[in-house]
Design brief:
By secondary structure, the chain is of the alpha/beta class. The chain has 13 helices and 14 strands. The protein has helices at residues 15-25, 39-49, 57-62, 76-85, 100-113, 127-138, 169-172, 176-179, 181-192, 258-261, 289-292, 297-309, 317-336; strands at 6-9, 31-35, 66-69, 89-92, 117-119, 144-152, 197-203, 214-220, 226-232, 240-246, 250-254, 269-275, 278-284, 340-341.
């Protein structure tokens, strides 16, 4: 098998630093070059990681067997199409795209080229997520009727945050509900499948951003289960990130987002139990990847494993589209004040 050679496409997203660290730490040092449409940014990164800077996209694609895309979200479709046309496998930062139409165009290009596409959803690589999913799948909680996911950080409280492209609706496609909430949407879809419908609200309590600073969506499933998803750029601190309630027991997971990572210490995953009529929490021994460190590195490591072994990525375009469809439907529900079917997301009302 030919060695894997990676071209990093853009350092617009900070996670490119973590991915390149993982590529450079790999024994085969697969990072071939860095391309960036910001010449100064790209050259600085290339010098830091000791690889060539390639200002020409076609030349960068010629120098690799796969790409890692960390551009502004608006650039994901064009870079994906270019990589697919060149026959290059793709690791792409979240969210997949700004719209379902863009995601579908990316999928069409990937299918036509027959290349691997891995969507960056690091919750799927977290041992704490897998431990929680095993508890849910085991039936220990009974019939799950309510799930609550909060995901966010406090960077929106930084006066420099409005200058970042993440909060430019043209570049990013949305605010907290898309940028942070897509992680929670993917987790819900992974655990429970796609919900049927959603109602939502988005707000700007500080009013410093051109996108929503906080968003909340309430998803309803076909069996009657409700799932609350809250995302925010304004969280100074937090603790429990995920709550799942069944008719037999409940499970709580902490320290799996930036708001809770540094403040929560120990007892991260708890499951309720009842013995002799007394209720208590049982702590499940697992440490979230956020606490272990190298959280975002895992995407690059998993991508290399997929390319070398031929195994399917933990998340691909279908999973990226599913999570995006939940967020798009939530935005449409917030805009109209009406319940929106997930299946109708992206379609004219």
């Amino acid at each position: 098998m030919a060695p894997v050679r990676i071209a990093m496409l853009s350092f617009a997203h900070y996670h490119a630093n973590f991915w390149c660290e993982a590529f450079c730490e790999d024994a085969e040092r697969p990072l071939a070059c860095i391309w960036d449409d910001d010449d100064a940014r790209g050259r600085e990164a290339a010098a830091r990681f000791g690889v060539p800077f390639e200002p020409d996209l076609a030349a960068a694609l010629a120098a690799c067997t796969a790409v890692a895309i960390c551009s502004e979200t608006v650039e994901h479709p064009a870079l994906t199409r270019a990589a697919a046309a060149a026959g290059r496998h793709i690791l792409c930062e979240k969210p997949t795209a700004r719209s379902l139409a863009e995601a579908d165009a990316m999928a069409q290009a990937v299918r036509a080229a027959g290349v691997t596409f891995m969507q960056s959803f690091p919750k799927r690589l977290d041992p704490a997520s897998h431990a929680l999913k095993r508890i849910v799948d085991s039936g220990r909680l009974g019939r799950v009727h309510l799930a609550r996911v909060r995901h966010g950080h406090g960077y929106g409280l930084d006066p420099d945050f409005p200058k970042r492209w993440y909060v430019d609706p043209g570049a990013s496609g949305g605010g907290a509900l898309l940028d942070e909430g897509v992680h929670g949407a993917d987790l819900l879809a992974w655990f429970f499948g796609l919900p049927e419908s959603v109602t939502a609200e988005i707000v700007n309590p500080i009013g410093a951003l051109a996108v929503e600073e906080t968003g909340a969506a309430l998803f309803r499933y076909a069996d009657g289960m409700l799932a609350e998803l809250t995302a925010s750029f304004l969280l100074p601190a937090a603790d429990v990130s995920i709550e799942i309630y069944g008719d037999r027991a409940a499970a709580l997971l902490s320290a799996v987002d930036l708001a809770s990572r540094d403040i929560t210490q120990g007892g991260y995953l708890r499951v309720s139990q009842e013995r002799d009529g007394a209720k208590s929490w049982e702590t499940i021994e697992v440490t979230p990847r956020f606490k272990l460190g190298r959280f975002h590195h895992q995407n690059a490591i998993a991508f290399l494993e997929c390319l070398r072994t031929g195994k399917a990525p933990p998340a691909g375009l279908a999973e990226g589209r599913a999570a995006l469809s939940m967020i798009v439907a939530a935005y449409e529900a917030a805009a109209t004040g009406a319940r929106r079917r997930i299946a109708d997301a992206g379609a004219a009302s």
